[in-house]
Amino acid sequence: MAKRRIGILTGGGDVPGLNSVIKSVTYRGFELGTEVVGIRRGWEGLTHLNLEDPASRTRYVVELNRENTRTIDRTGGTFLHSSRTNPSKMKKLPDFLAGATFPTSTVTKDGVTNTVYDMSPQVLKNLEALGLDYLVAIGGDDTLSYAAKLDQLGFKVVAIPKTMDNDVRNTEYCIGFSTAISRAMDAIQRQRTTVGSHERIGVFRIFGRDAGYTALYTAYVTSIRCGIPEYRFDLEKMVQILVDDKRKNPSNYSLVILSEGAEWQGYQVVQYGEADAFGHRKKLNVGEVFADELKKRTREETIVSDLTYDLRSGAPDFVDKMVATTFGNMALDAVVEGKSGLMTAIVNGCYTMSPIPDPKLGPRKVELGMMYNTERFRPNYANKLGLPIFLTHP
Q1: CB-CB neighbours of 2 under 10 Å
Q2: pLDDT in tens, 298-340
Q3: What is the mean pLDDT of residues 22-28?
Q4: Domains of the chain, with CATH numbers?
Q5: Is 60 exceeded by the pLDDT of residue 278?
């Protein structure tokens, strides 16, 4: 049997557990006689790689082996580095391809229309030149949306879901989610002493652009209120509930956690800055805006805390390390079996392989009613019998 040669990359934001995936694929690959090639900086590694330039090859390609991956799973981040690059919608071509011809289209965002390039031909060219038979793509919705396209173009791809937002379709769990919740829980529990000492209302902002899983599950384990993107809440009612919570608390404080994409009636998330490769702009801190609104309506003082990048930093917890290691081995099993267009997943609490999600469907959303109490702005704690461990379905 011919020796396999597979590439592996990480795209989008980093999360704890990525290095465990990289190591497990490399180690099992070595046992099976498979060569593993690391593509650095995500999809940029396949759009900007100039194989005729040794410096470019050094920047974007690394041959992985047991020696250079032996200890990487002991730390967080990604050994292969990352970027937010969308090969099908490149605003600018790399300098060495200036003047080259690629398919183009126009993208309009906030009234501004730009011409973008589809560099898929260059991606396929580099994959072929590197002698790769397969690609293992690790990422969230954005990264996996291009993995789906690459599969449609005929290149063999196996995907692995990672995002602290836990909003990738076709799976109940994404690498990075457990560590993010654990860190958020610890941060909130620590800050109770400060918020309580000053008898204020604590407002926490957390990642969750389109889906509220991170805020919802953090609220679930800390027993506090939350606002999520799936439900535009009544501001006056939320404020009153928090004031009531504070007065009923012997320590005279209350807490609420808001997804970055949370909105209330009459308010729309404010975005700023240039859009990234997938059309996303930065969002104004909804926690600060909410705190200002709360103060206008009451005499209550607030403490606003931004629980974002710290939650994706550092080493993974047990769940993320276990799932990441398992997903890596499942991906390699799929390669050995000649499968393509599939994603490692957990469905009904069991490990399985699912289709790479259709990008047109967008992110997975919190199911209101079953998971979120829209009257009390908190998780729904009832009727969990028979649900899988993560209390949700893909």
Answers
A1: 6
A2: 989 999 999 988 898 899 999 999 999 999 999 999 999 999 9
A3: 97
A4: 5-175+316-361 (3.40.50.450), 178-313+367-379 (3.40.50.460)
A5: no
Catalytic annotation present for 245: no
Q: Are 82 and 42 in contact (CB under 8 A)?
A: yes
**Distance between CA 263 and CA 29 in Å, rounded?**
46
Rounded mean pLDDT, 183-202 = 97
> Position of tokens 């398919």?
103
Choosing from 73, 141, 165, 167, the catalytic residue is 165
Q: Which two tokens stand for residue 78?
A: 């990604």
Residue 142 identity: D
* The pair of three-digit structure tokens given for residue 363, joined into one six-digit string: 């992110």
Contact 321, 139 (CB under 8 A): no
Output the CA torsion 372→374→376→378 (10° steps).
20
Where do we find the tokens 């390669």? 335
What are the CA-CA distances from residue 41 to residues 48, 82, 164, 236, 303 (Å)?
Answer: 10, 4, 19, 45, 37
Cβ count within 10 A of residue 380: 18
The percentage of residues in the chain with a pLDDT greater than 70, rounded to a whole number, is 95
What are the DSSP calls for 178-232, one per residue?
A: HHHHHHHHHHHHHHHHHHHHTT-EEEEEE--SS--HHHHHHHHHHT-EEE-TT--
pTM above 0.85, yes or no: yes
Give the Cα separation of 194 and 191 in Å (integer): 5
For residue 123, what are its two tokens?
A: 């991606």
Residue 150 CB burial class (10 angstroms; 0-12, 13-18, ≥19): buried
Could you tell me how far CA 270 lies from the centroid of its own chain? 21
